[in-house]
Amino acid sequence: MSEDPALGELLDVLSDEYARKILAATSIKPMSAKQLADECEMSQPTVYRRVERLQAHGLLEEQTKIRTSNNHYSVYTATLSEVSIELDTGSFEAAVTRTDDESFPGEGESDTADRFKKMWEDL
Question: Model pTM?
Fold first, then answer.
């Protein structure tokens, strides 16, 4: 029986309690690293390590929030909706379903023109 390396990596990421807490929190609303550290009761370096790993697997999206005071910051949104694993004729098949960009209206514009328009309107 062979295992897809990508499946093993995905399961490894999801087996991490901190990563799951971050995904759960950001599935409710976009959150900054500081908010995640407070909400999930972990240090900011731990948040940043997990965020980087979740982004590498396409499970978390980063958006830059722009303030007029030049203090820009990032917020993170979970893109993971569902993971399913199937065992069929001696091998595992995994399917990952990601949320669409309308999960957080006004927050998840994926098109560059939409993000620019939103940024311009917020100035």
Answer: 0.73
